[in-house]
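Supplementary Methods. Inverse-folding protocol.

Structures were first reduced to a discrete structure-token string of length 90. This string, shown here, constituted the complete conditioning input.
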């Protein structure tokens, strides 16, 4: 199982846990399993087409998945996925 780091604004879905585990062979599978275990978080991560929302950054072991294979990026048990909502401001 991969470990996911959950940002503070999304922790309401995970019982205020900063880290949770979810199984999956790819980043996409892990994120879908995260939503199955913690209903509602998927709506904050995925858009209506099933793509990662543009204001959410997803990192696999400090690498942006957009620079890898996106949601199809393979995941190993010891991997860490970090969700980071983009900051807005001006």
């Amino acid at each position: 199982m991969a470990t996911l780091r959950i940002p503070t604004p999304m922790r309401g879905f995970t019982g205020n846990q900063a880290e949770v585990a979810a199984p999956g062979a790819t980043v996409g599978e892990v994120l879908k399993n995260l939503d199955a275990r913690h209903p509602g978080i998927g709506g904050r991560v995925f858009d209506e087409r099933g793509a990662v929302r543009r204001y959410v950054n997803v990192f696999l072991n400090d690498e942006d998945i957009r620079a890898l294979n996106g949601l199809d990026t393979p995941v190993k048990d010891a991997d860490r996925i970090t969700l980071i909502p983009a900051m807005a401001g001006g």
